[in-house]
Amino acid sequence: MLAFERRDAITNKITREKKILVSELSILFDVSEETIRRDLEKLEKEGLLTRTHGGATLNSQTSQDIPYITRNTLNKDLKTTIAQKILSIIPDNATLMVDSSSTVFEAMDTLKHLRNNITIITNSLEILYTFKNSEFQLISTGGNIRKQSQAMVGSSAESILNRYNVDFGVFSCKGLSLTSGVMDSNEPEAEIKKIMGSRAKKIILLVDSSKFDVPAFVNVFTLEQIDYLITDKKPSQEWIAICEEKNITLIY
């Protein structure tokens, strides 16, 4: 196993279990404890975890902004599962505004060969670069680049978004709450999402099951604003009931 593959596996493990031990990881990956400590040091610098005596814990700060390259490896299978389900909503010839999340990236990758004449307006550098030679019609918001998330934000981006009206806004988030609604980890990107949502006829939220009942730093949307909620497995009965109450189409 290569070093980056091992760190991806560590990332997925700590995301599931919230804490990890150096000794256990050393045995699991058949490497020295010193090698594991170097892996944890790198992941700590990326903002994913905090090292402790003998191990590490997952960062739980609601404003923690994990780098895109790290987020892209988290719950990869769940994101792929969610991405497939967006096909039931988006038809050919649709116009979209989409955020810079890794889950939404997976959804756009799914649409790439299965839908025709799709227009995408986005602040995501990753989407713009990856799909620059695809059949998508791409429109960039421009703006100030946030290196951590590979997203463009600021007044220039907001001005571009306010020129357009689209069929769907497609988003993910850091946390989802019955009381606070849809939340994210930083205000500049939250503001971009709010404007995108206001320019869309329908809002689609893509969120894996680990995000339910998790707080985050800043509110983005109320539950009343969401038209479709797509997740990877059946949520709690409480969430099913609230989706019925708020007229949210729940897909799992």
TrEMBL record:
Keywords of this entry: DNA-binding, Transcription, Transcription regulation
GO MF terms, alphabetically ordered: DNA binding; DNA-binding transcription factor activity
Top-rank taxon: Bacteria
Domain HTH deoR-type, chain residue ranges per copy: 3-58
InterPro entries: Carb_Metab_HTH_regulators, DeoR-like_C, DeoR_HTH, NagB/RpiA_transferase-like, Tscrpt_reg_HTH_DeoR_CS, WH-like_DNA-bd_sf, WH_DNA-bd_sf
Pfam families in the record: DeoRC (PF00455), HTH_DeoR (PF08220)
PANTHER family xref list: AGA OPERON TRANSCRIPTIONAL REPRESSOR-RELATED, HTH-TYPE TRANSCRIPTIONAL REGULATOR SRLR-RELATED
Name of this protein: DeoR/GlpR transcriptional regulator
